[in-house]
Design goal:
heterodimer; A: mainly alpha; B: mainly alpha; globular
């Protein structure tokens, strides 16, 4: 149990830090609020609409496809590091994995998910 | 270098255990691409149903030829229970595939993906019943469930279909969360060294006294997770709406295959890993069983829709089967559940074939639609009579023997009160099953007639009806066959 004490301390510090900083700055800073300052982004451009908007379903499709091929990297990276130890076995395994992704790629291609219009 | 060689050796040695599952994966993937969307694009889509059926038959043969054994670092095991419940899952999927063909034709919704998803889901069930590790168990459960979420919401043009899909997905995801949380608590309480079921049982026995609450919480959470999957009260809320909104063949699938697989895993998990902490889950599980029997049967009394009636009656049947999970003797419990599930599968498949036959173009699944069926289609009405009597467990029928063995086991294990309750609620269930029979035989037929659909359906109706009748004659010997469901 004693080994967890530093983690607990870290959590307490992490919680305390923003509370302290925010309150200090609130006490020290001058305060002249205005409508423009209270808006979501103070970047100089007038807000157009709410943040909640409908997106076309294509964005989700792109996100899913990105995820599929991004996960690929997650598996390729450890394999590349351990390549020598895993030898032929690793090569075959990662080959099967990439081969499977190929089928996924073929499927989305044939379904026309890659053509935007 | 020797490390990689040992991995390679293990893989080659263990792979035969997974041959049927691998076969399903490969065929399912090929169906999606390149066969389904590229090579055989010009082939009529409705023929995929036939191809899928043949694939499932081949898988069935492969399951019979798979040698018993354990592998993948104790993650997966082929024994009598695995083989038996794998057969149930495949038969249920095969019945679903035949039922799907005319229904999807009528709705003009045929697609390769539908059949591939059924195959993937079946492969998940086949892994689930053989899983001997918490991790592989969870992975298999998710593989099974993810495919079914999509299948439930398959009719995405219909509001009811979308509602059913979303409902099932949200509750399913939530229950998976409970399950994993429970598993993690048990893993921690058992010393954080193993997730293997047999090893967990020993580790839990050695757990320190102050871990008792942790084990109890974990077991209850796992119980709740499984309760959602098999739709036992009080975790049944999703079931009627989902049954109602899903395409009818998927309703048939949902009420048989995942339940069979989940109950198989249920018995294995609670019978092996949590056997030592029986006291922790006996009382909550008894409550779930009793509540399922009472609520399922009483709620079914008032249903107008045939699919909702079957949903509630399915909750009640799960309640009966939980009696066997409760048993101290996991193997006897698995045998009783297997027999019950087999008969339930046949009857349910037959009933849904009749419903789809009458449904025409996705309309008319009310009990009223069965009025005067005995005059319009005497054979169909007779088959329905057989299924209804069998579902109700009326003595000479097959369903009676399954119930008899289940209740006998429960009495032997000393659950007398629960068994009496099961008898009483079973008597209630006879009312609504016979009500359907009365509607068919003693009420006037409505004007006009819906178009009959497909010869495949009549084959299912007559095959299952025949099996139920033949099984009825063989009733007393059924228990000898189930002795092959061995739990190692």
């Amino acid at each position: 149990m004693p080994s967890y004490a530093p983690i607990l301390l870290l959590i307490l510090v992490a919680i305390a830090l923003p509370v302290v900083i925010w309150n200090t700055s609130r006490l020290l800073r001058p305060s002249w609020p205005s409508a423009a300052k209270a808006s979501t982004y103070e970047c100089g451009i007038v807000t157009v609409s709410e943040a909640r908007e409908k997106f076309t379903v294509r964005y989700y499709l792109v996100a899913v496809m990105f995820l599929v091929f991004d996960v690929e990297t997650v598996f390729l990276m450890p394999w590349a590091i351990q390549m020598k130890e895993l030898a032929v076995f690793g090569l075959v395994e990662i080959g099967i994995f990439l081969f499977l992704l190929l089928f996924g790629y073929g499927y989305i291609w044939s379904k026309g998910a890659l053509t935007w219009e | 270098m020797p490390f990689a060689e040992s991995l390679w050796g293990n893989l080659v040695q263990d792979l035969p255990l997974l041959v049927p599952v691998l076969f399903l994966w490969i065929v399912g993937t090929l169906m999606l691409w390149p066969l389904g969307s590229w090579l055989l694009k010009s082939m009529p889509k409705r023929q995929w149903s036939g191809i899928t059926f043949v694939v499932l038959l081949v898988t069935l043969v492969l399951v019979f030829r798979t040698p018993a054994g354990q592998g993948f670092s104790g993650m997966f095991q082929v024994d009598g229970l695995t083989t038996g419940f794998q057969i149930l899952a495949i038969v249920a999927a095969a019945i679903t595939v035949i039922l799907s063909q005319p229904q999807l034709n009528a709705l003009k919704e045929q697609s390769v993906e539908y059949y591939a998803l059924i195959l993937f889901s079946t492969s998940g069930m086949m892994l689930l019943v053989g899983a001997t590790d918490l991790v592989s168990l969870y992975m298999a459960l998710e593989l099974m469930a993810l495919c079914i979420y999509i299948l439930v919401g398959y009719l995405r043009e219909q509001d009811r279909g979308i509602e059913a899909g979303i409902k099932y997905f949200l509750l399913g995801a939530f229950s998976s969360g409970l399950l994993v949380y429970g598993m993690s608590l048990i893993f921690a309480a058992a010393g954080g060294k193993t997730t293997n079921l047999a090893a967990l049982n020993q580790a839990l026995a050695l757990a320190p006294r102050n871990a008792e609450l942790m084990i109890f919480t974990g077991v209850i959470l796992v119980l709740a997770g499984f309760g959602f999957k098999v739709a036992a009260v009080p975790f049944h809320m999703w079931s009627p709406d989902v049954y109602d909104g899903a395409p009818t063949p998927i309703t048939a699938f949902l009420s048989t295959a995942p339940k069979a697989a989940a109950l198989g895993a249920f018995v294995r998990l609670f019978g092996t890993a949590f056997n030592g902490v029986h006291g922790d889950w006996a009382a909550p599980l008894s409550f779930m069983a009793a509540a399922s029997m009472i609520l399922g049967n009483i709620a079914a009394l008032r249903q107008q829709s045939m699919k909702r009636l079957l949903a509630y009656s399915s909750i009640a049947h799960v309640g009966y089967m939980l009696l066997a999970v409760l048993s101290h003797d996991a193997q006897a419990g698995a045998q009783a559940i297997w027999l019950y599930m087999l008969t339930y599968l046949l009857m349910q498949g037959g009933v849904f074939a009749v419903i789809i036959y009458l449904q025409g173009k996705g309309e008319g699944e009310r009990i009223e639609d069965f009025r005067g069926l005995s005059k319009r289609r005497p054979m169909l009405a007779f088959a329905m009579l057989v299924f209804m009597l069998s579902l109700g467990g009326i003595p000479p029928m097959l369903g009676f023997f399954a119930k008899f063995y289940l209740f006998k086991l429960a009495i032997e294990q000393g659950f007398v009160t629960l068994t009496v309750l099961a008898f009483l609620t079973s008597a209630i269930s006879a009312y609504y099953y016979l009500n359907v029979v009365a509607t068919m035989y003693f009420k006037e037929a409505p004007e006009g007639e819906a178009q009959p659909m497909g010869s495949g359906l009549s084959i299912v109706v007559f095959a299952t009806c025949l099996l139920v009748l033949v099984g009825t004659c063989l009733g007393p010997w059924l228990m000898d066959w189930t002795a092959r469901i061995v739990l190692v």
